[in-house]
Amino acid sequence: DAGVIQSPRHEVTEMGQEVTLRCKPISGHDYLFWYRQTMMRGLELLIYFNNNVPIDDSGMPEDRFSAKMPNASFSTLKIQPSEPRDSAVYFCASSFRTGGETQYFGPGTRLLVL
Amino acid sequence: DQQVKQNSPSLSVQEGRISILNCDYTNSMFDYFLWYKKYPAEGPTFLISISSIKDKNEDGRFTVFLNKSAKHLSLHIVPSQPGDSAVYFCACEAPGTYKYIFGTGTRLKVLA
Fold first, then answer.
1. A10 Cβ under 8 Å from any chain B Cβ
2. Contact by Cβ (8 Å): B105, B89
3. CA–CA separation, B66 vs B47, rounded Å?
4. B83-105 pLDDT, tens per residue?
5. Model confidence over B47-89: pLDDT tens digits?
6. Is the pLDDT of residue B111 over 90?
7. Dist. CA B73–CA B24, nearest whole Å
8. Of A41, A113, B93, B106, which has the fewest CB atoms closer than 10 Å, so is most exposed?
9. B98, A97: Cβ pair inside 8 Å?
């Protein structure tokens, strides 16, 4: 398996622009997680899905952030409008939960908002 | 308010010696604990885990210790190798949530 795939790997945009990050989880995994990594706060969980349904979005920082999972093999995290403080590395992870299953992370998208 | 803390942002160790990375948590309901390793420009990868019913788990050079009364987790790497140089994150899971709460990470540098 190719692992969790994220695109783009790098994104540079200007403040106010819309940003869309994409994720393809590992085939067969039924949980998908979006994280954000910053120096100050480390890895923060933003939202997670089970069987394409959002379960917990309490980590989404503001209404500017939204996430969707239209099918089992694709998810998006959208920021609209983007702000400089959104600059971070965004990771997608997936897992197959039978109890104690670990999460497998993608390589991340490094976002810079100017 | 950080529920999971890694108070040492960085650590340097000589090759062959023991590396000890520490993690403290505040929520006594956490019942599953993990360590992830992260190389630059890559996603974190799972290293080792322990459930709350145990106090030690070993996997080769890596051992995780759990002290529930102190709410403290540690990772021992023996012997340390230059390839172990990475950022290490501890994570805690609250029961029934499938949510990992990560610490801020400790950058380990193993000197040859």
1. no
2. yes
3. 15
4. 999 999 999 988 777 788 999 99
5. 999 999 999 999 999 999 999 999 999 999 999 999 999 999 9
6. yes
7. 6
8. A41
9. yes
